Structures are given as structure tokens and as C-alpha cells.
Amino acid sequence: MAKIITDEKLIDELLERGTEEVIVKDHLKKRMMAGEKLRIKLGIDPTGSVLHLGHAVVLKKLKQFQDLGHQVIFLIGDFTAKIGDPTGRASARKPLTEEDIKKNMESYQKQAGIMLDMEKVEVRYNSEWLAKLSFKDLIILTSKITYAQMAQRADFKERIKNDIDLSMQEFMYPAMQGYDSVVLKADVELGGTDQKFNLLMGRQLQKRYDQKPQDVLTCPLLEGLGGTDKMSKSLNNFISLTEEAESMFGKVMSLTDELIVRYFELCTEISLEEIKKIKKDLENSKVNPRDVKIKLAFEITKIYHGEKKANEAKEYFEKVISRKEMPDEVKEEKVNEGERLIDFIVKIKLAQSNADAKRKIEQGGVSLDGEIIKDIQTKISKAMEGKILKVGKREFRKIVVE
């Protein structure tokens, strides 16, 4: 059995840094200081294949609990993913297929392993119990909650007010997430601030099932590359955990200066004392924000790629982006003569979709040997053999025409 670490300094940092709210903080700290081995739950619905730095804020917190010796539970909501979390949504979400869910589950576990010791993690799927609930069980579950409680949820309230459809299955989502905590006998549940209603439902249901109510720890939502909206794949403002080192470094460098300190606090392992100094220097204009951002990009890239790759990414950025030189090595990509350039860009994953590739071309972000491509109907020809395709500021590919 892993030893429980009760170092007060480490516990305080866990409960305070990168934390929005702890319910109930004194109660949780007392249990941690007493050396209790707690069951720490994080639930993620596999609604996509990518985990990004926004997810990492909570995963980092989960790792801190794991490092102190507590039992981490990585709950994959394969059943609830079929319904869809209605949090923050103005309309219902299209349910996922079994195939999508399976593929995303495998991807999530692999990416979570970047930060967590998955051999020590209790990985569970809520289909284990939710799929087996009888109608009688469901009636018993719904008897533990009231319509008035559910209708107070902000996004539900808004949809009811505006006469927008709200299905019973969506209405049941918080109850199912809360029931997960009952089954797992969770002591603590983590989540973003937007999950507070669902997390508190776990506390309520545990009380109704005569269990000790879990403590709740919420983490702030990380702003994405635009600087306003939260990081999200759907908004294409994210930095994925599996992003290549050069791309990760470059994307961090594109952040607005206002996010520098926040990213240091939520996304790096730099001490709070050093972060305070960085903040003070930025406020007094003692340093160039770009230089601080280079340090930020290095620290973040180092976590996911190691120091050597982070240094290489820094050198790449300074050479290719800052001095606008050609990189030393350019990856070759084979393409059939006559294929549309727009399709090729999507195929080699330099754009998420044809619409994204079209946007990049129309905005002047695509060039061949320095010549900007303006026609979205451009096709690959033999004359392009050996030319360097550049997409955006950071992506270069050498074209090999077949």
C-alpha cells in the first residue's frame, strides 16, 4: 500500500494553486492531514479524441493527489457520452456512436498517461452500472432529487424560459453523474467550474444513499488561444497534449500577454514565488513580455516532450518564426498529380477540414516556395515537385509528386 504523504505545504498547494473552490476545504484538509487514503474521482465523457491544456489543469490536480498516495479514479463516461452533458448548451447534443466512444476512450487513456501513472489509476466505465439499472432502480434514483433542484440549473433554466426543448435524458444527466459517485464511493470529485452543479449533485445523492458526501474541488477554465473563450476543440483555440513540440511552443508564443501569468500558474510547475516575481516584472515593464513568453513556452513544452525537445522547439521558433528562415529539415509528403491542394492540406493534417483549409488559403496563410496561393481550386502539378509548402507560420512540407 502506497504511503500517504501528509506534508502540509504540499497539501496547501494542492488545495490552493490552480483551484477555484473547495467544498468543504477545512473538512478535506483535515482528512488529508490525518493520513486517510481518499478516493479521488475525475469523470470525463469521451466526446472527442483530443485532450488539451484545459483538461491538463484538472489532470495536474489529479496527479498531485496521486503523488500524495491517494487512489485516483479515472472515470470514463462511456454511458453518459451517449446522452451528452448539457452543461452550457443552448440545445441538445447529437449522441455519439459506439464506435466513436470506443475510439475516444482508448485515446483519452493514452493521453492521460502522459501525466498520470496509469498503473496505479483505477480506470472505470460508468456503463458498468448505469447500463444495468432497471426501471425500478431508475425510479428510486429519481426519487432522491426534485424538479425544483434540477430546474435551478442555469442552462436548464434558460432553455425552459425560452421554450427550447429539454429532453428527459438531458435532465437526468446530473443525476447519473452524481450516481457515479455513489457507486464509486468517491471521497473527492474534481472538475471545472462549469461542472459545479453536477459535482454537488454527487454530494446530495451520496447523502440520500447514506454515504459520507464527497468533497468537491473545482478548477478554473483555461482560456484558449484567442484569450477570451475557454479552450475548446470546437473553437479550434486549443493546444493538445500530443501536439508536436515545435507546434506546442509556437502556439504558446501566440498567446496574448495578458494570459502569461495565468498560464504559468495553471500549466507549469514553476514555483508560486517565481510566478509572483514574473508578474511584478511584467507590471513594472522590467522585462520584454516576449522573453517571458519564451520561458513559458519552454516550460510547457518541457512537461510534455522533455528538456531536449523543448530546447529544439525554442531554436526552431527563433530561426523559423522570428528570423523567418527555412528549417534545417523539412518533412516530405507524397501527393498524386491532379489532387486539389485544399484536399492535400487536410490529408496531411495541416488543416482540420476543407473549410479550415479554404480559410487558410483565403487569408494568405498558404504558400509554395514563398509564393502565396490565392486560388482555392489550385491542383497539384509536376511543376510543384520539390517545392516547399508552407501553411501558417510554423508548418513546412516538401512536396513529392507521384
Give a description of the structure.
The chain has a six-stranded mixed sheet with strand order 1-6-5-2-3-4, with helices on both faces. The protein has a five-stranded mixed sheet with strand order 7-11-10-8-9, with no helix packed on it. The chain is globular, with a radius of gyration of 24 Å. It has helices at residues 8-16, 25-33, 53-67, 98-112, 127-130, 135-142, 147-151, 154-161, 168-184, 196-208, 245-253, 260-267, 272-283, 289-322, 341-347, 354-362; strands spanning 21-23, 39-44, 71-76, 122-125, 188-192, 215-219, 331-335, 366-368, 371-372, 388-391, 395-401. With 402 residues, it is of the alpha/beta class. Helix content is 45%, strand content 12%. The N and C termini lie far apart (59 Å). It folds into three domains: 8-219, Rossmann fold (3-Layer(aba) Sandwich), CATH 3.40.50.620; 245-322, Tyrosyl-Transfer RNA Synthetase, CATH 1.10.240.10; 331-401, Structural Genomics Hypothetical 15.5 Kd Protein In mrcA-pckA Intergenic Region, Chain A (Roll), CATH 3.10.290.10. The protein is built from 16 helices and eleven strands. A hairpin with a 3-residue loop joins strand 10 and strand 11.
